[in-house]
Amino acid sequence: MKDFSGKLAVVTGGGSGMGQELARQLVIQGCDVAICDVNQENMQQTIKICEAEGPQGIRITAHQCDVSNEQQVLRFKDEVIQQHDRDHINLLFNNAGIGGFFSFIKDTREEWEKTFNICWYGVYYCSRAFVPLLIASDEGHIINTSSINGFWASLGPDSTHTAYSAAKFAVKGFTEALINDFRLNAPHVKVSVVMPGHIGTSILDNTRTIMGAGDADSVDADRISELRQSLASKDANAANATDDEIRALLQKRADSFRDNAPTSAAQAAADIISGVQQDRWRILLGDDARALDRLVRETPEEAYEAAFYDRWGSEGGWK
Fold first, then answer.
1. CA distance 162 to 283
2. What does the alpha-carbon distance between residue 265 and residue 304 come to, in Å, rounded to a whole number?
3. Of the listed ranges 89-103, 150-164, 209-223, the one predicted with least confidence
4. Please, what is the end-to-end C-alpha distance for the chain in angstroms?
5. Helices (DSSP H) in 186-305: which residue ranges?
6. What's the burial of 107, exposed, middle or buried (CB within 10 Å: 0-12/13-18/19+)?
7. Contact, 37 vs 64, CB < 8 A?
8. Which run of H or of E encompasses 18?
9. Closest to 261 in 3D by CA, of 195, 201, 172, 306
């Protein structure tokens, strides 16, 4: 799909980060866009940006939707059809997601499954709802956001990451399986899996909000205690940190993750759109993602050993 003019794109998680940038860049190229998000305020910001930068006559709509709730996804689909007066869509960006460091062993089932349900079932439910509308088009493309954690289930030796990684592995496997499914049953529809490295977004702040913790100041005492213990294992001085100091550190880390990332959300969105135009089924975002992909392929048996983490760090990976 070389030209997006006159097409209709659906972008989940369109209120911030890569979703907002995808909406903005698609609109600039003449594409109508329907976004969804759980945060109404963020979506209105996206609408404002798109209306200011897009050409006259482009239509962008915002729909409040929790993608882990199938009934809300079906309502979202019906709203898109009605408000855009179309019987098909051309692009589906399954972009919505949250982070999650939850342990299968230590954390609650509810926390673990909420992360998994948003990151995996959000892709599945939206695909079930919108793929028939892609098939109804003359030219369609589904783009599913996995992660480097869709091929490497870790963020380092001191972090648990099972819910998020399990979901992102599922997204990657599902998307790769769709390649032949579409070739056999809907050859005019293409598919891509996106695997971002560290992208500058507000995912840490958004995750706290969605998981019910609110902003950093609202993190509960139990979580603060867990964080203090984790930090103290690396820095003995952290054992004496106050609750407010721990909360301030959390916010500082979230801000740093957004502001000091090696790849911006704008660059990530541009790379995704370029990948669609080039009909690439596999889109790695960032030099860090490409380096990690290479290392895991070279030594898969060592991918979770201490020596691998050391090598990853020495070759430009995260410290």
1. 23
2. 28
3. 209-223
4. 38
5. 203-210, 221-232, 243-259, 265-277, 287-298
6. middle
7. yes
8. helix 17-28
9. 201
At a CB cut-off of 8 Å and minimum separation 6, what does 173 contact?
Answer: none
Using the structure block, give the residue that is written with the tokens 């990151």.
119
SS3 85: coil
Lowest mean pLDDT among 18-27, 209-218, 248-257: 209-218
* DSSP code, position 66: -
At which residue do the structure tokens 């995808």 appear? Answer: 22
Distance CA 170, CA 147 (A): 11
Q: What is the pLDDT of residue 215?
A: 46
Closest by CA position to 104, among listed 47, 49, 161, 189: 161
pLDDT of 200 reads 77
Question: Pairing relation of β-strands 189-196 and 140-145?
Answer: parallel
- Whole-model pTM: value is 0.87
* Alpha carbons 57 and 65: distance in angstroms, whole number: 25
Looking up tokens 């759109």 gives 273
Helical axes 287-298 vs 306-314, angle rounded to 10°: 140
Contacts of residue 6, Cβ cutoff 8 Å, sequence gap at least 6: 30, 31, 32
Angle ∠(57,73,99) on CA atoms, nearest 5: 100
Amino acid at 98: I
Q: Which residues, in sequence order, are CB contacts of 194 under 8 Å at separation 6+?
A: 143, 144, 145, 146, 272, 275, 283, 285
Which regions of the chain does DSSP assign to beta strands (E)?
Answer: 8-12, 32-37, 60-64, 91-94, 140-145, 189-196, 199-200, 263-264, 282-285
Question: Which residues sit opposite 199 in a β-bridge?
Answer: 263
Domains in the chain (CATH in brackets) are 8-201+264-314 (3.40.50.720)
Determine the Cα–Cα distance for residues 232 and 241; give it in Å rounded to an integer.
9
